[in-house]
Amino acid sequence: MNIHEYQAKELYRAYGVPTPNGFAAFSVAEAVEAAKKLPGPVWVVKAQIHAGGRGKGKFLEASAGDKGGVRLAKSIDEVKEFAEQMLGKTLVTVQTGNAGRVVNRLYIEDGSAIDRELYLSALVDRSTSRVAFIVSQAGGMNIEDVAHETPEKIHTLTIDPATGYQPFHGRKVAFALGLKGDQVKAAGKLVENLYRMVVEKDMSLLEINPLVVTKDGKLICLDGKMNFDSNALYRHPEIVELRDLGEEDQTEIEASKHDLAFVKLDGNIGCLVNGAGLAMATMDIIKLYGAEPANFLDVGGGASKEKVREAFKIILADPSVKGILVNIFGGIMRCDIIAEGVIAAAREMDIKVPLVVRLEGTNVDLGKKILKESGLKIIPADDLADAAKKITDELKQVA
Ligand code: ADP
Ligand code: MG
């Protein structure tokens, strides 16, 4: 789960992590009120969407101006002007896709006099089973490009959970970032507090780009991207409260209501699978046969007929789906239940795209018999490769 920058900055404050003062605003009047509470002479008006690259982003509407989603205002009048231009408009950034995101919230904050822009992120590193800190002096710009072109500018350090944060971690980060004097101490405090925050709040990712050194030598976090492990949200109701459903994919929300693990993808073959591993393998084999999956969908181990029907609804609601591949292994789940779910869905929703079904496992013969006797146009498949081949062949015929 992601949260907005202004919410991330509240968390910074709670953990003693330095960040400029600022206030969220949902209307132009609130933006002006917020600006009045800050000293100036520079205010920053920042569009709040769950995507980065806002500074270099572009609005779809000409009336929003061409200065992107992060703007420096020199007066309260300018704050008002920028707020009017941005609110309700659609911001497109490298991370939003072409459709962009509507800006419904702003963050008005103190402008900082920046000397250097640095990069710092922390994430759960699966290969070492530790929290890794990744830092670079090349902050503020696209860190993926830095990683690609000049990987030597990126430094990684992991913290052993058995010892937790140790002062040498802070010093290592400080030296990697070229910090001197008092800044080394400040960096130690920063890393210590960030580590505590990441662990206590079960974050999977924290990205601060940029972390800046100000003209008067202070270290301040100017941006904040936070990602929380959804499996741990049950113990953080205060984080769940920050959820902004307007920023999430509507189908993914619908899927989560029915306890279906669903991720929307770019291809045109809808997949309905049980088990995350089998779902991954199914996506792989679709790609192997030259097509692209439209989604990842795991109906889970013990899905009911109703759940299968809901899953179908979600897949069919996606206009880019040109074919469906159902791949079920009946372990806990029985193939006859799946077959009934598929038929109920097909009858109810009048499926117009080719449907390939591969069943294996418990009650497979009964399942196949039910499908066959249904009179519906369902293409049966015997194994994974056969299923992938059949659905991709069907798509070629349509094209
Ligand atoms: P994004 O990463 O979405 O573009 P940022 O919050 O990183 O948004 O802002 C983009 C750039 O705007 C930063 O790299 C920094 O140069 C500038 N900026 C952001 N906040 C402030 C601030 N409070 N004071 C001065 N400059 C800022
Ligand atoms: Mg940024």
From TrEMBL:
One of its GO terms (biological process) is tricarboxylic acid cycle. Pathway: Carbohydrate metabolism; tricarboxylic acid cycle; succinate from succinyl-CoA (ligase route): step 1/1; One-carbon metabolism; formaldehyde assimilation via serine pathway. Residues 9-55 form the ATP-grasp domain. One of its GO terms (molecular function) is succinate-CoA ligase (ADP-forming) activity. ATP binds at K46, G53, R54, G55, E109, S112, E117. Its cofactor is Mg(2+). InterPro entries: ATP-grasp, ATP-grasp_succ-CoA_synth-type, ATP_grasp_subdomain_1, Succ-CoA_synthase_bsu_CS, SUCC_ACL_C, Succ_CoA_ligase-like_bsu, Succinyl-CoA_synth-like. Keywords: ATP-binding, Ligase, Magnesium, Metal-binding, Nucleotide-binding, Tricarboxylic acid cycle. GO terms for cellular component: cytosol; succinate-CoA ligase complex. Pfam families: ATP-grasp_2 (PF08442), Ligase_CoA (PF00549). Its EC number is 6.2.1.5. Substrate binds at N274, G331, I332, M333. Mg(2+) binds at N209, D223. Binds 1 Mg(2+) ion per subunit. The keyword Ligase applies. It catalyses: GTP + succinate + CoA = succinyl-CoA + GDP + phosphate; succinate + ATP + CoA = succinyl-CoA + ADP + phosphate; (S)-malate + ATP + CoA = (S)-malyl-CoA + ADP + phosphate. It is an enzyme of class 6 (ligase). PANTHER family: SUCCINATE--COA LIGASE [GDP-FORMING] SUBUNIT BETA, MITOCHONDRIAL, SUCCINYL-COA SYNTHETASE BETA CHAIN. Belongs to the succinate/malate CoA ligase beta subunit family. HAMAP family: Succ_CoA_beta. Heterotetramer of two alpha and two beta subunits. Succinyl-CoA synthetase functions in the citric acid cycle (TCA), coupling the hydrolysis of succinyl-CoA to the synthesis of either ATP or GTP and thus represents the only step of substrate-level phosphorylation in the TCA. The beta subunit provides nucleotide specificity of the enzyme and binds the substrate succinate, while the binding sites for coenzyme A and phosphate are found in the alpha subunit. This is Succinate--CoA ligase [ADP-forming] subunit beta. The lineage of its organism: Bacteria, Pseudomonadati, Pseudomonadota, Alphaproteobacteria, Hyphomicrobiales.
